[in-house]
Amino acid sequence: AWLEKHADSQAWVVMEATGTYHEALADFLHAKDYRVCIVNPAVIHAFGKEDLRRVKTDKADAKLIAAYAQQKQHKLRAWIPEPPARRRLRALVRRLEDLQEILQMETNRLDVAQSNVKGSILSMISHVKNEIAVTQKAIKDNIDDDPDLRQKRDLI
User: Lower CB count within 10 Å: N or C terminus of the chain?
Assistant: First the structure.
Protein backbone atom coordinates (compact mmCIF):
# COMPACT_ATOMS: atom_id res chain seq x y z
CA ALA A 1 0.00 0.00 0.00
CA TRP A 2 2.85 2.39 0.81
CA LEU A 3 4.50 1.75 -2.56
CA GLU A 4 1.23 2.28 -4.40
CA LYS A 5 0.80 5.62 -2.63
CA HIS A 6 4.39 6.92 -2.75
CA ALA A 7 6.23 5.28 -5.64
CA ASP A 8 6.02 5.54 -9.39
CA SER A 9 5.18 2.27 -11.12
CA GLN A 10 8.66 2.26 -12.71
CA ALA A 11 10.47 2.77 -9.42
CA TRP A 12 13.03 0.20 -8.35
CA VAL A 13 12.65 -1.72 -5.11
CA VAL A 14 16.20 -2.51 -4.04
CA MET A 15 17.05 -4.82 -1.17
CA GLU A 16 19.98 -6.76 0.17
CA ALA A 17 20.13 -10.53 -0.12
CA THR A 18 19.58 -11.79 3.41
CA GLY A 19 19.89 -15.56 3.32
CA THR A 20 16.34 -16.56 2.47
CA TYR A 21 14.60 -13.80 4.40
CA HIS A 22 14.30 -11.42 1.45
CA GLU A 23 12.75 -13.97 -0.90
CA ALA A 24 9.12 -13.74 0.22
CA LEU A 25 9.11 -9.95 -0.15
CA ALA A 26 10.88 -10.13 -3.51
CA ASP A 27 8.37 -12.73 -4.74
CA PHE A 28 5.44 -10.61 -3.58
CA LEU A 29 6.75 -7.42 -5.20
CA HIS A 30 7.68 -9.23 -8.42
CA ALA A 31 4.16 -10.67 -8.62
CA LYS A 32 2.84 -7.09 -8.28
CA ASP A 33 5.02 -6.09 -11.29
CA TYR A 34 7.49 -3.98 -9.35
CA ARG A 35 11.07 -3.84 -10.59
CA VAL A 36 13.02 -5.65 -7.89
CA CYS A 37 16.79 -5.65 -7.56
CA ILE A 38 18.51 -7.83 -4.97
CA VAL A 39 22.02 -6.66 -4.15
CA ASN A 40 24.81 -8.55 -2.43
CA PRO A 41 25.31 -7.09 1.08
CA ALA A 42 29.07 -6.84 0.40
CA VAL A 43 28.34 -4.43 -2.47
CA ILE A 44 26.26 -2.22 -0.19
CA HIS A 45 28.92 -2.43 2.53
CA ALA A 46 31.64 -1.37 0.09
CA PHE A 47 29.44 1.47 -1.15
CA GLY A 48 28.94 2.62 2.45
CA LYS A 49 32.70 2.64 3.02
CA GLU A 50 33.13 4.96 0.02
CA ASP A 51 30.83 7.44 1.74
CA LEU A 52 32.46 6.81 5.13
CA ARG A 53 29.15 5.72 6.66
CA ARG A 54 29.70 3.88 9.88
CA VAL A 55 26.28 3.88 11.54
CA LYS A 56 24.68 0.41 11.56
CA THR A 57 20.95 0.61 12.22
CA ASP A 58 18.02 -0.58 10.13
CA LYS A 59 17.12 3.02 9.27
CA ALA A 60 20.72 3.88 8.33
CA ASP A 61 20.99 0.68 6.26
CA ALA A 62 17.76 1.52 4.41
CA LYS A 63 19.08 5.01 3.61
CA LEU A 64 22.36 3.52 2.43
CA ILE A 65 20.57 1.07 0.12
CA ALA A 66 18.41 3.91 -1.22
CA ALA A 67 21.52 6.04 -1.87
CA TYR A 68 23.16 3.12 -3.63
CA ALA A 69 20.06 2.62 -5.79
CA GLN A 70 19.98 6.29 -6.74
CA GLN A 71 23.68 6.57 -7.58
CA LYS A 72 24.00 3.19 -9.29
CA GLN A 73 20.62 3.07 -11.04
CA HIS A 74 22.31 2.32 -14.37
CA LYS A 75 23.84 -0.83 -12.82
CA LEU A 76 20.64 -2.20 -11.32
CA ARG A 77 19.49 -5.50 -12.79
CA ALA A 78 15.96 -6.77 -12.47
CA TRP A 79 15.61 -9.83 -10.27
CA ILE A 80 13.80 -12.82 -11.72
CA PRO A 81 12.59 -15.55 -9.37
CA GLU A 82 14.22 -18.94 -9.65
CA PRO A 83 12.07 -21.76 -10.98
CA PRO A 84 10.39 -23.66 -8.11
CA ALA A 85 12.47 -26.82 -8.65
CA ARG A 86 15.72 -24.87 -8.28
CA ARG A 87 14.42 -23.10 -5.21
CA ARG A 88 13.47 -26.44 -3.65
CA LEU A 89 16.90 -27.84 -4.53
CA ARG A 90 18.66 -24.86 -2.96
CA ALA A 91 16.59 -25.26 0.22
CA LEU A 92 17.43 -28.96 0.39
CA VAL A 93 21.14 -28.33 -0.15
CA ARG A 94 21.14 -25.69 2.61
CA ARG A 95 19.40 -28.14 4.90
CA LEU A 96 21.93 -30.85 4.05
CA GLU A 97 24.77 -28.47 4.90
CA ASP A 98 23.10 -27.62 8.23
CA LEU A 99 22.66 -31.30 9.06
CA GLN A 100 26.28 -32.06 8.19
CA GLU A 101 27.36 -29.22 10.49
CA ILE A 102 25.19 -30.61 13.30
CA LEU A 103 26.68 -34.06 12.76
CA GLN A 104 30.19 -32.64 13.03
CA MET A 105 29.29 -30.76 16.21
CA GLU A 106 27.81 -33.87 17.83
CA THR A 107 30.78 -35.99 16.75
CA ASN A 108 33.12 -33.44 18.33
CA ARG A 109 31.06 -33.50 21.54
CA LEU A 110 31.28 -37.29 21.66
CA ASP A 111 35.08 -37.10 21.80
CA VAL A 112 35.02 -35.18 25.10
CA ALA A 113 31.66 -36.17 26.59
CA GLN A 114 31.14 -37.65 30.01
CA SER A 115 29.89 -41.23 29.92
CA ASN A 116 26.47 -40.24 31.27
CA VAL A 117 25.67 -38.16 28.13
CA LYS A 118 27.31 -40.30 25.46
CA GLY A 119 24.08 -42.23 24.88
CA SER A 120 22.21 -39.03 24.15
CA ILE A 121 24.91 -37.85 21.76
CA LEU A 122 24.99 -41.22 19.97
CA SER A 123 21.21 -41.09 19.64
CA MET A 124 21.44 -37.60 18.15
CA ILE A 125 24.19 -38.70 15.75
CA SER A 126 22.05 -41.61 14.60
CA HIS A 127 19.05 -39.34 14.06
CA VAL A 128 21.07 -36.74 12.18
CA LYS A 129 22.65 -39.41 9.95
CA ASN A 130 19.15 -40.63 9.12
CA GLU A 131 18.01 -37.07 8.30
CA ILE A 132 21.08 -36.63 6.08
CA ALA A 133 20.16 -39.78 4.14
CA VAL A 134 16.54 -38.62 3.78
CA THR A 135 17.68 -35.19 2.60
CA GLN A 136 20.17 -36.65 0.12
CA LYS A 137 17.37 -38.79 -1.34
CA ALA A 138 15.10 -35.73 -1.55
CA ILE A 139 17.87 -33.88 -3.43
CA LYS A 140 18.22 -36.77 -5.87
CA ASP A 141 14.45 -37.01 -6.34
CA ASN A 142 14.14 -33.25 -6.86
CA ILE A 143 16.78 -33.41 -9.60
CA ASP A 144 15.25 -36.52 -11.17
CA ASP A 145 11.76 -34.99 -11.22
CA ASP A 146 12.76 -31.82 -13.11
CA PRO A 147 13.85 -32.13 -16.76
CA ASP A 148 16.05 -29.01 -16.62
CA LEU A 149 17.84 -30.12 -13.44
CA ARG A 150 18.13 -33.67 -14.73
CA GLN A 151 19.99 -32.42 -17.81
CA LYS A 152 22.34 -30.40 -15.62
CA ARG A 153 22.94 -33.18 -13.08
CA ASP A 154 26.68 -33.42 -13.74
CA LEU A 155 27.17 -29.66 -13.36
CA ILE A 156 25.09 -29.60 -10.19
Answer: N
